[in-house]
Amino acid sequence: MTEVYIVNTKQGLESAVNEMFNNLEKIEPILKSSKEVYIKVNGIDYHKHSYTSPEVLKAVIEYLNNIGADVYVMENSTQANMTRIVFAINGFKDVCEEMGAKIIFLDEEDTKTFEFKGKPSVAENSKGYILKTFRLPKTITKIMENRDSITYINLPKLKTHSMAGVTLGIKNQWGFPQHADRGKDHNYNLHSKLVDVYEYIKPDITIIDGIEGTIHGHYSPTVWEDRLVKKFDVLIGGRDTLAVDVVGARIFGLTLDDVPHLKIAFKRGLGEGDLSKIKVTGKNLEEYKEKYGTNILQEFPEDVKIIKGKELLCREGCENNPLVTLQVFAYDHKDKFKGGWFIVMGKGHDENIVEQLKKEGYTKGLVAGHCAIEEVGDKLLKEFGKRKVFFSGDCNNLAETVKAILKLSKMTVFDLVPISNEELMALIDAANEQGSTALVPL
After folding, report:
1. CB distance 388 to 341 below 8 Å
2. Predicted confidence (pLDDT) at residue 137 exceeds the cutoff of 50
3. pTM strictly above 0.85
4. What pairs with residue 39 in β-bridges?
């Protein structure tokens, strides 16, 4: 049977990590011939509770150093962020420098193009239907081409996800495609595309940082942490990433039917997805009796008008990307945030949308996603003007969404970043000098 290990972290992280690797080494050695080990953290952002614990990363690197590994830590943070900035703020840079691990900012690398192949995603344009492609950084292609000699360790954090159900081992690899390739078709096809990336590159080892877990989405307002962050005090690891994810999802009370990308991966034969055929060592899963929500809490500022399309609105993109951003800005930065504007999303809007907005006193806002832009964008622009109506293209371009919401709420990017303006600009300049392709709201 496929084996997944759950290790209690209350014994101390160093001891827990050693126990995890000792279990994994019973199957096969950790190191391969090159002794190179590449660690993919979950570093989507510096926002509290959103990233792999630096303490877990440190303990993993320490173990690898002790067995003679040459360690690299890599990430390409979410849209609207530069990885170099995230690492400087959330502690990853300090850990890597202390432990002698080399940092790879994947958004600063040359890339190679691949196709989404499992369920081809298409978009209609003036030339008809086209197959969607995506670009992977050179480090990832190097790992793909040298699987027999390079060890790849996936180190996600235990989180639900408001668009993907959970963000564990398979979803963590969505950090590999470049920013410009993520927003396109980031809709109901997202689940299949996550599996497409996983089919190209599967980790040798996945260890989920489950010291704490977030519920109701992966990126919730810090002011709600007492409601949305739960202590679990575990590491969950194994050689089969799908099996590890299935066990991680089960800790949240979720099954394959709750997490589409896990179900798709199982159907494609990319790992063990049947929980009854997974041997779980270290914990009895029956201890986890509660089922936690994956969607964001439906709480939003009263002075922001949210208009949802009646025909099509994808939770995976145009709905939850702007709503998550709205929540964090409105509730974590309440002293600076200003409302009095609208968000239009999805397809299937009332033909009198302009008159309704004017009647309620709304004259500025964001149109999120190409469906809404194509249907009502021109109408809103004509009535309210270009200075008051902002577009976020594709299936919601997160960088454009952040930029728009900042302007509408009378905030700036400097209100979000807990470092000096000088330090921030120095990091941006350094990333740009290295050729960063990150989409940022500047």
Report:
1. no
2. yes
3. yes
4. 73, 153
